[in-house]
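User: Hey, quick favor. My workstation is busy. Could you predict this chain's structure for me?
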Amino acid sequence: MRIEVQSDRGRYAPAIILFTLSLLLLAFPGRCGAEELFPGYSPEVGTQAQRVVQAAGPGKEKELASEVRRLRKRMYSHGVLSINVIPDHVFRRADKEGWTDSLASTFRVIAEVSPLSAQMWAWMVKEDILHLRLSELFSDFEGLSGALRGFGPALVGYAAWIISFASAAVCWFAVWVSLALFLRSRPSLELDISRVVRLPMREYLSPLAAVVLFLLPLGAGFGLAVVVCYWMVFSVAYMRRAELVLMSTAIILLATLLLGGSMLHLLHRVTGDAPKEGWLGADGYIPQQWPAEARKGHVPVGGAAPYWLVEFSRARAAMQMGNSAEAERIWTGLVEAGKDLPEVYNNRGVTRAIQGKKKEALSDFEAALAKRLEDGPALWNAYQVYLQVFDLEQARLLQPLAWDRIRKISPYRFRPADMEAGEWLASPLPVNQLIRVIVQRRGDLLRQAGEGEYYRMFFRPLTPRFAILFLVLVWLSSVVWKIYSMRVWVHNTCRGCGTQTLVVEIREASDFCNMCHAQVGWGIRVGEERERRALGIRMHRNYVKAVSFLVPGSGGLWAGKEFRTMVYVAFLSLSLAVLSLSLGAQEAGDIVSELQSIVARWAILVTVVLWLAGAVWGIRSFEKMQKTIGITGERR
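Assistant: No problem, here it is.
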């Protein structure tokens, strides 16, 4: 599914918009799998839409505008607001014929008949940024925002992508924290394993035992959230207080991951059993099958889409196919069922006006205005009927408000002076009602959490009821174990030189060994003691460098820069999340796939830069800390 000026604010606008564009990659509904170019539309609309696609091309804007004008008249005579698939067909032609660089000017003309195509607006925003067309950038961005606000599937898909993006960022953050803390604790953990278990040949078997402990949950097939909690629990006895904050943050974020996965599952259930075809998209995407819905007047069962939502979409689809009588029947049923929304009244009025029932149509438009005084489509339609029945006084009174309101409906860009009699403005799916349905089902978040794919991926083999309790128990047991570990002897690894000693009480008090406190450096005596210390320092330095490269930024933990490290990890996790969700375009020659590929390339570049920067920063921070305590590599 599918996003400058001299002031300081203007300088940052492109960066903000680029980031927003990256959040829109999957925010657009999938296309119907039918073989026809324009399935579900009346023959005259579908035929004219094909003429628009054929007329598109570089330098053909004037001819294209003429065909678009004819199509708009046919669309509005059937209550069709947007044919979202037109930009996709035009893009395929351009990609095949090699004129994608000229698409922006073509899309500006097509926007009149495909205003709800979010991927088309996203492409134009991208082109504006690349070519620094500042005068058009904010206008196109407003069109993109309007398409997302006004098109139900795009809004649902956008919400699903945002949740997926946040979940991916949480996963990367938690994985980084658990790996960094485990690797930070590994040298001490190995010695404590050999001390507690009394292994033979401990210098060989202790490292092997630590590796087994690390890989055990992965081999057991546990979910990722369970694995990272396992790693953090084994590291807790060796953590400093600031590192405990890192761990607590990761656990809280994992709890939000549980809820985020449930929300994704809930969005899927609201959109029904046929999300691929985008069944909510009556203005552009016709389903091959309708989702399961509750019977009239009953509460939806098992998370199915509510009755009125499915019926609203059926009625809009009937309008698109030119079956006005069937659409009127469905709208009337919705009114009788108590869903007397302004959108329902306005759309029923359109179907009646198309059939020539002007009196009944006017009654519906007036009912819509009674419920929402400044409803743009209802105002325009009522104004049209007043003109047709020669009630010129009412038309004169209504004209200024009607013209003003429809001009402000983004992203349609209506021009009242150019509109003709018989161009009826239907109402799209009421997005606020869709949001209300989702909010009303918030009580299902925990109850249905175990049914979602995210839950099985991250929290198996836990039950949904135990998942939150498990995270709470992990945090509480970590706190208890931390308090208890201050009263027992455990090994501690000196952050400066890697010397390992048995310590008790607060870890911060024993971060550095006595020789580092005295700034001894490599050692004073010549001989075995000096050589042993020099070898230990070299091994410790190489270990920290290797860990900091494999888990970038983790050198900051050894340097005592935990909070700055957390900020870096947050940025790295966001970059990795964008990369995770943008890799793998689904279909060549598709607008969304092309945008996805562009963002993927930038995400790879940003991630590589952040990775290398984090590794270099971590190593330099560690080396600076060593120099501060006198470990410079030279004899003192």
